[in-house]
């Protein structure tokens, strides 16, 4: 019973599932097969409810990667979360997450995409609030509500798609491109993907969601949840190619890439740096997708999943080792003590930067070369290359802080990472992160891209990388006694550090200002003037009139009354005289 | 950025990237120029289900590459030679199109000089 | 109810009925006047009661005001006959005739005698005063009214009925002001058609009858008597519902005539009068609800050893009529199936 814990069983099932998927994938990609399996639930006279599953090479490949990473992460969490009392609950939540993701991957119709999407949002909320403290609750609320906005967009897409008679978008996207309603649908799909993949207006939830346990971050926030948006746009790509809003998406994702790169340089929390690095790479995926290269985006999605999950797992080992401290200013010199973890960390960082022939190189370099070959703006070009440089910048800074500078926590210490469960899982991903770039490049690109660039543009990647590395080295040499330039430019620093104030927009801006305005309305109008004009004011007026009237009624002034009637008659008579005289 | 920077110098003769050549293909050449011909057959392309945007003048190398991939699955790295051939052919095609563009631009400039002198 | 056991009273009631019939079915104005006079003469013995000082004072006041009104009425119809010879309705003389008739009815601005007198009479006499005595003046009004004058009087009636009723603690005066308000509705129905007036009058007199007889049987004259009366729950409920129905609250039948009048007014574009009527009805309803809420919802200290039983046959009839009041609107839809 001890040997077959739920971690081990689920690891085994998911790992074998991913191995099976490798074979299926290679068969499907060779023969260019697309299988759609349908199960008819109910069939009335002309209406039928059918559940379909789409199996083509993209969905099989993605399923393979998702199940591989999740199996490794579950195996890793057997040791990482070993002090957790309710480990079963945790694993079941992770498994629910994986199943929702798989449901999203294999669905050719928008309804089961919604099921997977909502499942992802809900289960990621449960996972983020797993450690039940105030910060986790706030983070979970931010995550869940940002994702919920995307759900609303997909619900609207469902209702607009009822015009086409079927929710299986897979069949009619190529034909209905020029329709007006399709434009509405595509705008909403883009907005939904932007919320899920944390692009510029909605990007405040991703650093906040680092309050989740590290295996959750490794699975969810590096490879599966945040790539769901990119995957949706890849599926809808034939619809979105010539749209204006796609160019807006290019701008916004480029800005996301840039902003996340800058903010990661100001951060001192280990997991937040990695989260912002994920955000930057997501911006890269979205922007290359909006340039019109969906397969490049997919390629980068897969390779990024590999090394980012590895990076999170290494971060998890380091956090365990430092007695749950996540601040990098306390860390340093760990390469002397935990060389295996450092090996994985280095490989992952280098793959992130795009060092030749690791996994990140194939995807990132190809992306940058295709960007240079295509027809775009100077600003976008700048964003791409500067963000690549910034990637190198924060990665090198992280390396400096973690491995090269001195250890800052204690004076007598011994750091220990011989936890073979975690090491085995990290090694699996490291092998994949080294090999998967090249494997995928050969398999996916049946029709290769031809690149023809002048020398300097080709070397531009190397230029910005070297520049970034140099700046990273310089930045990590800050001391307490060196003049801290941050404080001299406080406004600019806080703007760049706090993610361009977007978390304020999502939290404070939606809560405080509206509630404040509501209180103003309540006090002034509801309990103020409208009481004066309709409620209590009328009561006061009527009361005064009644009292005034009873002054006339209650005095039993009979004589006055009769006499006044006589006066009225005399008045009428007088009037009559005048009237008759005029006849 | 590359493409638009490439046609930047041709704006003064009102020449853009997507324009067709307007002059006679033979002018200025001492040898006879033949039109390019597709070496891959139509029914081969259709049966291999190659997408329309890849059915250009290098499609025969592409077909060889696809055949090699199918035969060597899953050790796809063995097809490096065929991939290299295809990419070279594509490169030559690109260079040829660049040269045609430049020729068009110079002919138009010459036209302008002739008209300006007259 | 045991009123009729007295043969004198029976005689005078008989003559009262006939006088109204004389007044409304006569060919000439003189016959109308005769009917009105006989009405006055036969009502006085009904209300005068030498045992009660307040009652006899009320009957004296009634006699004075009504006789002045009748004399003026005679004078004005003679004047009209001399000058106009029975032509055209909306002219100056109609104002004079209308004002005397208004004094007869107890409508504003000549209404100041009405609450005083109602305060002095018993409930049965009040019922006759508030329902039957209004018939002949209103029908006479409908024969020769001045539209502009009447619109002014309607609005004045509505407002005075509403505002005057707010500060009353005596149930009889409250009913008087409610009667003045309903008089405005009745006069407004006159402007549309006489049929509509009969419709309104029937409903109104049914409701008034329930209220007056209930108060008669419980012997209530003031509002604070409602607070510590120890009647059982169902009678309280029935009183409550009839009060609400009198105020014109929708599912009960008191809403129905007001609704029909508003409907006809809207068809004929009398928007402003409708507004005034509705708003005054609202204030009156507020006052009823205030009474009901305080007396029937709260638990006051009750005298528990005095219980009131109802054993007379009158109560069965009353219950039947109040059931009509409660369910009437719903039942009336069955007429149109």
From TrEMBL, chain A:
Top-level EC class as recorded in UniProt: translocase
Transmembrane segments: 7-29, 49-75, 87-106, 112-131, 152-171, 177-195, 216-234, 240-261, 273-293, 305-325, 337-362, 382-404, 425-445, 451-474, 495-515, 535-552, 559-580
Domain NADH-Ubiquinone oxidoreductase (complex I) chain 5 N-terminal intervals: 42-90
Topology in the lipid bilayer: Multi-pass membrane protein
Function: Core subunit of the mitochondrial membrane respiratory chain NADH dehydrogenase (Complex I) that is believed to belong to the minimal assembly required for catalysis. Complex I functions in the transfer of electrons from NADH to the respiratory chain. The immediate electron acceptor for the enzyme is believed to be ubiquinone. Core subunit of the mitochondrial membrane respiratory chain NADH dehydrogenase (Complex I) which catalyzes electron transfer from NADH through the respiratory chain, using ubiquinone as an electron acceptor. Essential for the catalytic activity and assembly of complex I.
Any single Gene Ontology cellular-component annotation: mitochondrial inner membrane
Signal peptide: none
Protein name as annotated: NADH-ubiquinone oxidoreductase chain 5
Compartments where located: Mitochondrion inner membrane
Entry's Gene Ontology molecular function annotations: NADH dehydrogenase (ubiquinone) activity; NADH dehydrogenase activity
PANTHER family reported in the protein's UniProt record: NADH-UBIQUINONE OXIDOREDUCTASE CHAIN 5
InterPro entries in alphabetical order: NADH_DH_su5_C, ND/Mrp_TM, NU5C-like, Proton_antipo_N
Catalytic reactions on record: a ubiquinone + NADH + 5 H(+)(in) = a ubiquinol + NAD(+) + 4 H(+)(out)
Main location: mitochondrion
Organism of origin: Chilo suppressalis
UniProtKB/TrEMBL annotation, chain B:
Entry's localization field: Mitochondrion inner membrane; Mitochondrion intermembrane space
Source taxon at top rank: Eukaryota
Keyword vocabulary terms for this entry: Disulfide bond, Electron transport, Membrane, Mitochondrion, Mitochondrion inner membrane, Respiratory chain, Transport
InterPro entries given in the database record: NDUB7 (IPR008698)
Main subcellular location: mitochondrion
Listed Pfam families: NDUF_B7 (PF05676)
Protein's membrane topology: Peripheral membrane protein
Claim: Phosphoprotein is one of the keywords in the record: no
Biological role stated in the UniProt entry: Accessory subunit of the mitochondrial membrane respiratory chain NADH dehydrogenase (Complex I), that is believed not to be involved in catalysis. Complex I functions in the transfer of electrons from NADH to the respiratory chain. The immediate electron acceptor for the enzyme is believed to be ubiquinone.
Record-stated family: Belongs to the complex I NDUFB7 subunit family.
Protein name stated in the entry: NADH dehydrogenase [ubiquinone] 1 beta subcomplex subunit 7
UniProt organism field: Chilo suppressalis
Source species taxonomy: Eukaryota, Metazoa, Ecdysozoa, Arthropoda, Hexapoda
Automatic annotation (TrEMBL), chain C:
GO cellular component: mitochondrial inner membrane
Location of this chain's protein in the cell: Mitochondrion inner membrane
Keyword Transmembrane: yes
GO biological process: mitochondrial electron transport, NADH to ubiquinone
Reaction equations catalysed: a ubiquinone + NADH + 5 H(+)(in) = a ubiquinol + NAD(+) + 4 H(+)(out)
A molecular function (GO) term: NADH dehydrogenase (ubiquinone) activity
E.C. numbers: 7.1.1.2
Membrane-spanning intervals of the chain: 62-83, 95-114, 149-167, 198-222, 234-257, 269-293, 314-336
Protein's UniProt name: NADH-ubiquinone oxidoreductase chain 2
Source organism: Chilo suppressalis (Asiatic rice borer moth)
Organismal lineage: Eukaryota, Metazoa, Ecdysozoa, Arthropoda, Hexapoda
Gene this chain is encoded by: ND2
């Amino acid at each position: 019973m001890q040997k077959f814990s739920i971690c081990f069983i689920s690891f085994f099932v998911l790992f074998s599932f991913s191995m099976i998927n490798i074979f299926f994938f290679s068969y499907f990609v060779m023969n260019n097969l697309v299988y759609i399996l349908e199960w008819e639930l109910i069939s009335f006279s002309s209406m039928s409810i059918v559940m379909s599953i789409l199996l083509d090479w993209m969905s099989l490949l993605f399923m393979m990667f998702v199940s591989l990473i999740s199996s490794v992460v579950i195996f890793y969490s057997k040791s990482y979360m070993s002090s957790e009392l309710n480990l079963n609950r945790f694993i079941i939540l992770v498994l629910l997450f994986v199943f929702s993701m798989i449901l999203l991957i294999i669905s050719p119709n928008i309804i089961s995409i919604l099921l997977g999407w909502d499942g992802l949002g809900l289960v990621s909320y449960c996972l983020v609030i797993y450690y039940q403290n105030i910060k986790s609750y706030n983070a979970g609320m931010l995550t869940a509500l940002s994702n919920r906005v995307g759900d609303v967009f997909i619900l609207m897409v469902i209702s607009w798609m009822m015009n086409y008679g079927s929710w299986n978008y897979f069949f009619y996207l190529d034909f209905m491109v020029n329709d007006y309603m399709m434009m509405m649908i595509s705008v909403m799909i883009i907005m939904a993907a932007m919320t899920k993949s944390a692009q510029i207006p909605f990007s405040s939830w991703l650093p906040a969601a680092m309050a989740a346990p590290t295996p959750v971050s490794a699975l969810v926030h590096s490879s599966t949840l945040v790539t769901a948006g990119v995957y949706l746009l890849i599926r809808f790509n034939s619809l979105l190619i010539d749209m204006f809003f796609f160019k807006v998406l290019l701008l916004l994702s480029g800005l996301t890439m840039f902003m996340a790169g800058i903010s990661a340089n100001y951060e001192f929390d280990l997991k937040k740096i990695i989260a912002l690095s994920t955000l930057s790479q997501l911006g890269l995926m979205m922007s290359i997708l909006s340039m019109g290269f969906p397969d490049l985006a997919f390629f980068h999605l897969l390779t990024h999943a590999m090394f980012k999950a590895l990076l999170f797992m290494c971060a998890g080992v380091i956090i365990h080792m430092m007695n749950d401290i996540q601040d990098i200013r306390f860390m340093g010199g760990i390469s002397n003590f935990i060389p295996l973890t450092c090996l994985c960390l280095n490989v992952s960082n280098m793959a992130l930067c795009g060092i030749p022939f690791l996994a990140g190189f194939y995807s990132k370099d190809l992306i940058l070369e295709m960007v240079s070959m295509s027809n775009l703006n100077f600003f976008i070009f700048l964003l791409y290359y500067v963000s690549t440089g910034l990637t190198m910048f924060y990665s090198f800074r992280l390396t400096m802080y973690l491995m090269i500078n001195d250890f800052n926590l204690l004076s007598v210490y011994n750091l220990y990472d011989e936890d073979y469960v975690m090491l085995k899982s990290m090694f699996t991903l490291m092998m994949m992160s080294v090999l998967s770039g090249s494997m995928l490049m050969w398999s996916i690109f049946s029709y290769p891209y031809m690149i023809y660039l002048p020398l300097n543009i080709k070397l531009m990647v190397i230029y910005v990388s070297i520049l970034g590395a140099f700046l990273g080295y310089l930045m990590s040499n800050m001391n307490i006694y060196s003049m801290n330039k941050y404080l001299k430019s406080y406004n600019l620093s806080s703007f760049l550090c706090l993610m361009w104030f977007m978390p304020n927009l999502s939290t404070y801006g939606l809560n405080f200002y509206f509630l404040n305005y509501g209180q103003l309305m309540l006090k002034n109008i509801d309990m103020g003037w409208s009481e004066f004009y309709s409620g209590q004011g009328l009561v006061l007026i009527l009361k005064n009139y009644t009292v005034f009237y009873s002054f006339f009624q209650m005095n039993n002034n009979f004589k006055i009354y009769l006499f006044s009637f006589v006066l009225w008659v005399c008045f009428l008579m007088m009037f009559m005289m005048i009237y008759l005289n005029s006849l | 950025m590359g493409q638009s920077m490439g046609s930047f110098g041709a704006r003064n003769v009102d020449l853009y990237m997507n324009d067709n050549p307007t002059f006679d293909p033979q002018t200025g050449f001492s040898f006879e120029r033949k039109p390019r011909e597709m070496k891959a057959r139509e029914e081969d392309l259709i049966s291999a289900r190659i997408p329309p945007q890849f059915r250009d003048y290098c499609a025969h190398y592409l077909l060889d590459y696809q055949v090699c991939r199918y035969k060597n699955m899953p050790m796809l790295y063995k097809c490096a030679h065929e991939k290299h051939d295809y990419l070279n052919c594509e490169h030559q095609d690109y260079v040829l199109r660049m040269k045609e563009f430049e020729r068009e631009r110079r002919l138009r400039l010459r036209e302008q000089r002739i008209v300006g002198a007259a | 109810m045991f009123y009729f056991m007295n043969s004198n009273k029976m005689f005078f009631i008989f003559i009262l009925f006939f006088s109204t019939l004389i007044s409304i079915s006569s060919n000439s104005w003189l016959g109308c006047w005769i009917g009105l006079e006989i009405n006055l003469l036969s009502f006085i013995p009904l209300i005068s009661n030498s045992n009660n000082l307040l009652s006899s004072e009320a009957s004296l006041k009634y006699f004075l005001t009504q006789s002045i009104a009748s004399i003026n009425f005679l004078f004005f119809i003679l004047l009209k006959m001399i000058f106009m010879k029975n032509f055209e309705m909306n002219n100056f003389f109609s104002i004079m005739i209308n004002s005397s008739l208004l004094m007869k009815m107890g409508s504003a601005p000549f209404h100041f005698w009405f609450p005083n007198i109602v305060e002095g009479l018993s409930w049965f006499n009040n019922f006759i005063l508030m329902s039957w005595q209004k018939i002949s003046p209103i029908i006479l009004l409908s024969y020769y009214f001045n539209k502009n004058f009447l619109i002014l009087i309607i609005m004045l009636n509505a407002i005075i009925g509403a505002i005057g009723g707010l500060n009353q603690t005596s149930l009889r005066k409250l009913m008087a002001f409610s009667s003045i308000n309903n008089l405005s509705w009745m006069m407004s129905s006159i402007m549309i058609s006489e049929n509509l007036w009969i419709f309104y009058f029937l409903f109104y007199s049914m409701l008034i009858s329930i209220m007056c007889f209930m108060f008669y049987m419980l012997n209530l004259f003031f509002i604070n008597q409602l607070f510590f009366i120890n009647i059982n729950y169902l009678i309280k409920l029935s009183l409550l519902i009839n009060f609400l129905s009198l105020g014109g609250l929708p599912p009960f039948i008191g809403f129905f005539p007001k609704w029909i009048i508003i409907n006809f007014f809207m068809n004929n574009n009398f928007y402003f009068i409708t507004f005034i009527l509705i708003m005054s009805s609202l204030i009156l309803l507020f006052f009823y609800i205030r009474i009901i809420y305080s007396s029937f919802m709260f638990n006051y200290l009750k005298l528990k050893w005095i219980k009131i039983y109802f054993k007379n046959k009158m109560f069965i009839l009353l219950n039947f009529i109040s059931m009509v009041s409660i369910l009437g609107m719903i039942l009336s839809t069955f007429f149109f199936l």
